[in-house]
Amino acid sequence: MQNNEFHQAEITKIIDINPMVKRFFFKFAHDVIFQSGQFVIIDFGKLNHTYSSRSYSIADLSHGSVIEICVSLKENGAATPLLFNYKIGEKLKISIPQGRFILPDNLNTESIGFICTGTGVAPFRSMIKDLLTLRKYTGKIYLFFGCRTQNDILYREEFEELQNTHSNFHYTPVLSREDWNGAKGYVHVHYNSIFQTKPNAVIYLCGWSEMLKETRENLKSFGYTRSEIKVEFYD
After folding, report:
1. What is the DSSP letter of 49?
2. Cβ neighbours of 90 (radius 10 Å)
3. 141 in a domain, yes or no?
4. CB 65 within 8 A of CB 8
5. Does 10 fall in a domain?
6. Is the CB of residue 30 less than 8 Å from the CB of residue 65?
7. C-alpha–C-alpha distance, residues 83 and 47, integer Å
8. CA–CA separation, 216 and 162 (whole Å)
9. Nearest CA to 201 among 140, 146, 128?
10. Where among 26, 60, 95 does a domain terminate?
């Protein structure tokens, strides 16, 4: 159930990642309490759509008054073209964090998997930091991140640093439209090598609906149940 408590939040910083992706930082008048993986709802007041609001995952683990979201421009969309025109200093109406796409209270699995495409990596950035820095999770953590080109690899340096400093974190960006020295093609081939033997794991999926559908079917064929597969859709 969504919580309809909204607050005014000011844009304090905007980072242009590439022409299609921006990172927005919003400052509230109070500290924002949330669980890694949750989202906020931005109410734009009026959109050329049935609904006036859109949901965006919180993209970093913080415990202050500022939250970050990472947004991909949908050129024919009702909300993102409008959001991309906002400037630093402007304010938007944003809900308190909510959602059940979160980590389990009891981390009793030998590994945790994250499979995503595009800005679907945003909630995983928060969740992986939570696991490594706060919960001190010692099981294996896998991140398979499907992108088209190297310019689309979000938070690359940060994930590479986490992999260098935490031996249990395994980071695999996969490129489908650029030849490079890393993993190529689509994410399915690469996560299959880890999960087809069905290690004791919980697996989180976030990204394009077509990828999620195929991934969920693959994981089910390996023997994973609905309770072991957590899905967050976006298009």
Report:
1. S
2. 9
3. yes
4. no
5. yes
6. yes
7. 11
8. 27
9. 140
10. 95
